[in-house]
Write a structure and sequence with these properties.
Elements (H helix, E strand, L loop, with lengths): L2 E5 L2 E3 L5 E8 L7 E7 L6 E6 L6 E3 L7 E6 L4 E6 L8 E8 L4 H7 L4 E2 L3 E5 L2
Parallel strand pairs: 2-11
Antiparallel strand pairs: 1-3, 3-8, 4-5, 4-9, 5-6, 7-8, 9-10, 9-11
Length: 126
């Protein structure tokens, strides 16, 4: 059974950092593109960052470039999103997704995924 489980969300002050983790099970990560997406109340889901299967090609939405870093450890079946210099506008539910049908950019720009986690809340507030 394919499963993605996010963790690491929470409440943080502006300027702070969080690291989200996405633990995958039931399939081999090597063959999948992974992405982090977020959805704030009243807004559409947005592709934040995506990473390719093995060569490490990454995509970031403009609003997080230079602040967020996506990485993957296929041996640990885990994908990470390091978030630094957090801003109140980063507040959202963050979701992890996986797909073997689209490229890194296609997945993020289109907010597409074949498998999705349940999400983890990130709140940036003083």
């Amino acid at each position: 059974q394919v499963q993605l489980v996010e963790s690491g969300g929470g409440l943080v002050q502006p300027g702070g950092s969080l690291r989200l983790s996405c633990a995958a099970s039931g399939f081999t990560l090597d063959y999948y593109v992974f992405g982090w997406f977020r959805q704030a109340p009243g807004k559409e889901r947005e592709g934040v960052s995506c990473i390719s299967r093995s060569v490490g090609t990454t995509y970031y939405v403009d609003s997080v470039k230079g602040r967020f870093t996506i990485s993957r450890d296929n041996a640990k079946n885990t994908v990470y999103l390091q978030m630094n210099s957090l801003k109140p506008e980063d507040t959202a539910v963050y979701y992890c997704a996986a797909s073997n049908r689209w490229t890194t950019k296609e997945m993020c720009v289109g907010s597409w995924g074949d498998y999705w986690g349940q999400g983890t809340q990130v709140t940036v507030s003083s």
